[in-house]
From TrEMBL:
Residues 21-126, 139-246 form the Gnk2-homologous domain. Residues 1-24 form the signal peptide. Coiled coil: none annotated. This is Cysteine-rich receptor-like protein kinase 38.
Length: 645
């Protein structure tokens, strides 16, 4: 015990430094106003009822009076009196420290709990605008020795937790005013519990919320990394993480108990103990998993894929039962490499079963590609692969069932298109953009989809989009930006011109495809409908140059905001530019989608391709995709390379 105590103390000294904390609760900016001026009187008048207004309006309130604008915001888990006290404390601090300044921003707390509320005053309207400055921060006074070897793993775990919290915070699932909120607890290798909270003001869009939170994460990484926690507060969002419960999930944990030793004690023990027992734990876990699978009566077994990821291998007999022997009544789709059936597992779960065409060499490549990729990708805007089966000459992929089929069945149908309001189209466009951003930048891999189109975007029961069909996707190294392929793979009309002509592809080829889909969502017509005028990108560009871009807007959207739709046309044209270097990244696209105040560059000429080069020929699989031999269906015709990836 004595030796253990010495080891623990020595390790603590090595891992922990005590640094003076830097705290910025308020910021005063802008010009000054005279004492007893009308500006001060109007500001004080708004202040007099602000705390009560915030709580009676659900935790968020903004008001204006003769050129003075005030906004107040409380954390979603606030108690009424706690919110009132915090707002009133912020008002007192503003009056004391920013007594005669036109603009002020105070991000404060109640009873020492950081980032519980903020109050902002300005002489210009900020409501419904993404505001990324000014910023305040409140880091932990304790620092972790970032030179320790275990910090590499900590960074990875922390980054993954950030991604999960952003995803939770930007899903508008709440019926309350404070709709953008995410609070996540996780157990790391070094630390028993890590807590993270993110929240945005409810007046901005989901895309703007994500942009704000990403900005706060960047700020923390650049300015505060190495601390044992802390908060960053921007006018449109707040972010905070700690090694103790600070948002009330565990009422018995108090701030006084969260000293540097109690925070790190479990982590230090884990650093020394985990390596000793890790093999035993893994071994026991594998035995338990194996026993659970063997006891299962639904025919599911576990198999290790070539990628090293664990995957569910489903018994073919169970799939036959689930789909009623692949009955025609259960058939819900037909693709270039096989058919898709609806099924029901013994437990009642609905599934979509993709049965690849027997003996198709290309289907075999697609099958392996999709299994290897989707086992490692998890995002709400990507279809989820549940398992696979490869018995005999059968190759089957089993996905979550998405009830509303694919986007093309709605957007290109005269009747179904009527239910696609602009708000719904906005959400679908934004969701597809988020899915692509995850593939390009936010996942552990870098994936180029290469076949993004309306028929590969599925819609769930709530009409949320899910990107599907990864059979043609390519895996990039994280530092790789572009590549050249021997043969093209994708769908004519959605493929970028540099890809079709020169076989060069990158994330920008997906951006081009996204731009085509975006323009289709606005027009309500498929790209192939415009091929007489060289395609939708070229037609939209022609109308843009003539000052007639509004003419391509779907008549169904006649009562929607033309200004916002025109901004989306603008973004779509930027995505389909001939010049690859000028096309935006998906992260930039999401920022543009979520804000109407960010300056967007003017587009240059659109790129388009309506015919394949002579040396490229259709494969048997592409003939199947046409639906009948000897005819051409430009929006469904897929061209694929036969070489392994």
């Amino acid at each position: 015990m004595k030796n253990s105590a010495i080891l623990l103390t020595s390790s603590l000294i090595f891992l922990l430094q005590t640094l003076q904390g830097v705290k910025g609760g308020f910021i005063c900016i802008g010009s000054s106003f005279p004492t007893n001026s009308s500006y001060q009187k109007n500001r004080d008048s708004l202040f007099s009822t602000l705390s009560d207004k915030v709580t009676t309006n659900g935790g968020f309130y903004n008001a204006s009076l003769n050129g003075v604008h005030v906004l107040a915001f409380c954390r979603r888990d606030y108690e009424r009196q706690g919110c009132i006290d915090c707002v009133e404390k912020s008002i007192r601090q503003i009056k004391t420290n920013c007594s005669n300044r036109v603009e002020s921003f105070n991000c404060d707390s109640n009873d020492g709990d950081r980032v519980s509320c903020f109050v902002r005053t300005t002489n210009h309207l900020t409501y419904r605008k993404l505001e990324l400055g000014p910023a305040t921060n409140d880091p932990s006074p304790y620092a972790i020795d970032t030179s320790a070897k275990n910090m590499t793993l900590f960074r990875q775990e922390w980054g993954a937790m950030v991604d999960r919290t952003i995803e939770a915070a930007t899903i508008d699932t709440s019926t309350t005013v404070l709709k953008y909120y995410g609070a996540v607890k996780a157990e790391f290798t070094e630390f028993p519990n890590v807590y993270m909270m993110m929240q945005c003001t409810p007046d901005i869009t989901s895309g703007a919320c994500k942009g704000c939170l990403q900005e706060s994460i960047t700020y923390f990484r650049e300015q505060l990394w190495g601390r044992q926690g802390g908060g960053v507060c921007l006018p449109s969002c707040v972010f905070r993480w700690e090694l103790y419960d600070f948002y009330g999930a565990f009422a018995n944990v108090t701030r006084a108990q969260a000293t540097s030793i109690t925070r790190l004690k479990g982590g230090i023990i884990a650093i020394f103990v985990v390596p000793i027992f890790i093999n035993l734990i893994v071994f026991i876990g594998l035995i338990k998993a194996y026993n659970r699978i063997r006891k299962s009566n639904n025919g599911i077994n576990e198999q290790q894929c070539d990628s090293g990821e664990s995957m569910l291998r489903l018994d073919f007999r169970m799939i036959l039962i689930a789909t009623d022997d692949f009955s025609s009544e259960n058939k819900i789709g037909q693709g270039g490499f096989g058919s898709v059936y609806k099924g029901i597992l013994p437990g009642g779960q609905e599934i979509a079963v993709k049965r690849l065409a027997r003996g198709s060499g290309q289907g075999d490549v697609e099958f392996k590609n999709e299994v290897l990729l989707l086992t490692r990708l998890q995002h709400r805007n990507l279809v989820k692969l549940l398992g696979f089966c490869n018995e005999g000459d059968e190759e089957i992929l089993v996905y979550e069932f998405v009830p509303n089929s694919s986007l093309d069945n709605f957007i290109f149908d005269e009747e179904k298109r009527l239910i696609l309001t602009w708000d719904m189209r906005f959400r679908i466009i934004e969701g597809v953009a988020r899915g692509l951003l995850y593939l390009h930048e936010d996942s552990q891999l870098r994936i180029i989809h290469r076949d993004l189109k309306a028929s590969n975007i599925l819609l769930d029961a709530d009409m949320n989009p899910k990107i599907s069909d990864f059979g043609m996707a390519r895996l990039f190294n994280m530092d790789q930006t572009r590549a050249v392929t021997r043969k093209v793979a994708g769908t004519l009309g959605y493929m970028a011109p540099e890809y079709v002509k020169n076989k060069r592809f990158s994330v920008k080829t997906d951006v081009y495809s996204f731009g085509v889909v975006l323009l289709e969502m606005i027009t309500g017509r498929s790209n192939k409908s415009y091929f007489e005028s060289l395609g939708l990108p070229a037609y939209a560009w022609k109308c843009w140059l003539a000052g007639e871009a509004a003419s391509i807007i779907d008549h169904v959207l006649s009562r929607s905001s033309t200004t916002e739709i025109m901004r989306f046309i603008h973004i779509g044209l930027l995505c389909v530019q001939e010049n690859v270097a000028k096309r935006p990244t998906m992260s930039l696209v999401i920022q543009w989608l979520g804000s109407d105040i960010i300056a967007i560059p003017l587009p240059t000429a659109a790129g388009f391709t309506t015919h394949l080069p002579v040396e490229l020929h259709r494969t048997d699989a592409s003939n199947q995709a046409e639906g009948r031999a000897g005819t051409s269906s430009l929006n469904k015709l897929s061209f694929t390379e036969l070489s392994p990836r």
